[in-house]
Design goal:
The complex is a heterodimer. Helix content of chain A is 32%, strand content 18%. Chain A has a single domain (5-54, 72-194, 217-317), classed as TIM Barrel. Chain A is of the alpha/beta class. Chain A starts with a strand and ends with a helix. In chain A, a hairpin with a 4-residue loop joins strand 12 and strand 13 (205-206). Chain B has two domains: 3-86, Translation factors (Elongation Factor Tu (Ef-tu), domain 3, Beta Barrel), CATH 2.40.30; 98-239, Rossmann fold, CATH 3.40.50. The longest helix of chain B is centred in the middle third of the chain and has 18 residues, at 155-172. In chain B, helix 2 links the parallel strand 8 (98-103) and strand 9 (123-129). In chain B, the strands form four sheets. A six-stranded mixed sheet of chain B has the order 10-9-8-11-12-15, with helices on one face. A four-stranded antiparallel sheet of chain B has the order 1-2-6-5. Chain B has a three-stranded antiparallel sheet with strand order 4-3-7, with helices on one face. In chain B, helix 3 (155-172) runs parallel beside helix 4. Chain B starts with a strand and ends in a 7-residue tail after the last strand. By secondary structure, chain B is of the alpha/beta class. Classes of the chains: A alpha/beta, B alpha/beta. At the A-B interface, strand 5, strand 6 and helix 8 of A face loops of B.
């Protein structure tokens, strides 16, 4: 059983990465599993300067999901490189850093700082956070701005591959995806959270201090799957699928619609060992569904009316 | 799950679980997620450890929302995924007198500790409660503990309670360590009196939490130097001087 995937020059042991903002700096989960087993470790979004984030309440549970408005609280890129990265198994498992900045120029600076670190395997550019007033979102909703950020990060990232993380809160995600690809992105990841809100009828107040936030969790998986499917059909670069992935079947579904790899996000909050269980269960799920390698099923979604059982089809070919 | 018992009403539940292999300090907590929950409710639920013996791990839970309501109706032999012990608990200087300030469910983390403390005669407990005393496990605490409980059912009672709180903290301040756990308004008043009296105190706070392991950044609390610290890993017990309680 071969779970390996090649992703924009990186070789991953398996297609399961953590999703930024749901896995801390990785170390928080080392008590619950071996970080080396992950396909890649994607850490919390980093900015040039430390950020305190938004006031509380920042999170609220919703049916099969949650809203968050954390506001990118983080210790800053320099402290991450000094205090956290050396403790991660970066020589065994690719560590991907997620970047957040408020201007194109600042994105370039951050890419320059992080891209020359030997322990950093790739950069993921967050142009899609709905919870900060400046940056993030506005870059992710405008094809020209998204392309400008991508170019600037590429220019400064040295030889590191650049992943651009897309927002679902757009009219047509394919437009942004193509613009970012043309600007030189090596990979795409999608989707970030969907804008949402929750209201408490008793207090007549929003349930988040920031009023609105981002929806994540299994509730958004169908939306994510559709967007990944659409984007995979119009770009040539690898796509990393995320949005509500909780089970091995979810992983295989995203690969079937064309994703090279996946990220597990909110599910890490359900159980801190969930991602490790998922990786452990993947080979068995592959053999159960008759999959020998992930390359074989990538984008192999059967959309014709001919819904033949895969085994039956193999026999027909013979 | 080993079993469940109610106290006073169906809304106060003692949950008995198979004892885990670890040891915990008072004030630490566990995360609970019944396997039957599937994707909904999504988050596990945090509960402080009420008591741990060789026979069981016991949690004292008030039913206040969807998660606790579902826990109450969990089947007796159902599987509950549990992890812990989490967070930083109380430092208990056993040689020094203790003043425990507990508000309502804030009694939970002190039950096991009081029952196993080598010098219960050195423990003073002030317990504030809004509902009848029959809901809370006060009787099972050792008789040598000096217990005082105050019922608050009107706004005037709250003012009286705040006064007694102030008095007890002021009188006790030079003698030993204060440990407090309860709802935020209770802790806020307690903290004010603690700081005025220059007392040594540890506060256990309750916040909304998703992951319990420091990753989601939902449970943060503000410190005096402006940091936002995760309650789950830096707390839930903090030095009273450290926090800005809002």
């Amino acid at each position: 059983m071969d779970t390996r995937v090649e992703l924009g020059g990186l070789i991953l042991k398996n297609p399961v990465m953590s999703a930024s903002g749901t896995f801390g700096y990785g170390l928080e989960f080392s008590l619950y599993g071996d970080l080396q087993e992950l396909g890649a470790i994607v850490v919390k979004g980093l900015s040039l300067k430390p950020r305190a984030g938004n006031p509380v309440p920042r999170i609220v549970e919703t049916p099969c999901g949650m809203l968050n408005a954390i506001g990118l609280q983080n210790i800053g890129a320099e402290r991450f490189l000094r205090d956290k990265l050396p403790l991660l198994p970066w020589d065994r498992t690719p560590v991907v850093v997620n970047l957040y900045a408020q201007s194109v120029q600042e994105f370039g600076q951050l890419a320059g700082l992080l891209g020359r670190e030997p322990g950093v395997a790739a950069l993921e550019v967050n142009i899609s956070c709905p919870n900060v007033r400046h940056g993030g979102f506005q870059f992710g909703q405008d094809p020209a701005a998204a392309a400008a950020v991508t170019r600037e990060v590429k220019k400064n990232s040295g030889s590191r591959p650049v992943i651009v993380k897309l927002s679902p809160n757009v009219t047509d995600v394919r437009t942004i995806a193509k613009a970012v690809q043309d600007a030189g992105a090596d990979m795409l990841s999608l989707i970030n959270t969907l804008g949402g809100m929750a209201v408490d009828v008793h207090s007549r107040k929003p349930r988040l201090a920031g009023i609105t936030g981002g929806l994540s969790g299994p509730a958004i998986k169908p939306v994510a799957l559709k967007m990944v499917y659409q984007v995979c059909r119009v770009v040539d670069i690898p796509v990393i699928g995320l949005g509500g992935i909780c089970t091995v079947d979810d992983v295989l579904e995203f690969i079937l619609v064309g994703a090279h790899a996946v990220q597990v996000g909110t599910a890490n909050f359900m159980r801190p060992d969930l991602i490790f269980d998922l990786i452990r269960d993947l080979p068995e799920a592959m053999s159960r569904t008759g999959i020998v390698s992930l390359d074989e099923i990538r984008g192999a979604l059967e959309t014709s009316s001919d819904r033949m059982d895969p085994l039956e089809k193999m026999q027909n070919i013979r | 799950m080993l079993g469940m018992a109610w106290a006073g009403s169906r809304d106060f539940v003692h949950l008995y679980l198979e004892p885990p292999g670890w040891e915990a300090s008072p004030g630490q907590f566990v995360m609970l997620r019944p396997s039957a929950w599937g994707f909904d409710p999504l988050w596990p639920r945090p509960f402080s450890i009420c008591e741990k013996t060789p026979e069981y791990l016991r949690l004292f839970i008030q039913v206040v929302g969807r998660g606790t309501s579902l826990l109450r109706s969990a089947a007796p032999d159902s599987e509950i995924v549990l992890w812990g012990p989490l967070g930083k608990g109380f430092r208990i200087p056993v040689q020094h007198p203790l003043l425990i300030l507990a508000g309502g469910m804030g009694i939970a983390p002190f039950v096991g500790m009081c029952k196993t403390h080598p010098h219960p005669e050195r423990i003073n407990l002030l317990f504030g409660h809004r509902l009848g005393l029959e809901h809370y496990p006060l009787d099972e605490l050792p008789g040598k503990i000096r217990k005082e409980s105050m019922h608050q059912s009107t706004p005037e009672d709250l003012v009286d309670f705040s006064g007694v709180l102030q008095e007890r903290i002021r009188d006790f301040a030079p003698r030993g360590e204060i440990l407090a756990c309860g709802p935020m308004p209770f802790l806020r008043v307690g903290q004010r009196h603690v700081l005025e009296s220059n007392a040594r105190a540890q506060l256990s706070v309750e916040t909304r939490m998703a992951c319990g392991v420091g990753a989601c950044l939902g449970c943060v609390i503000k410190t005096r130097n402006g940091e936002m610290l995760q309650t789950c890993v830096h707390g839930p017990v903090f030095d009273a001087r450290e926090l800005v309680l809002q």
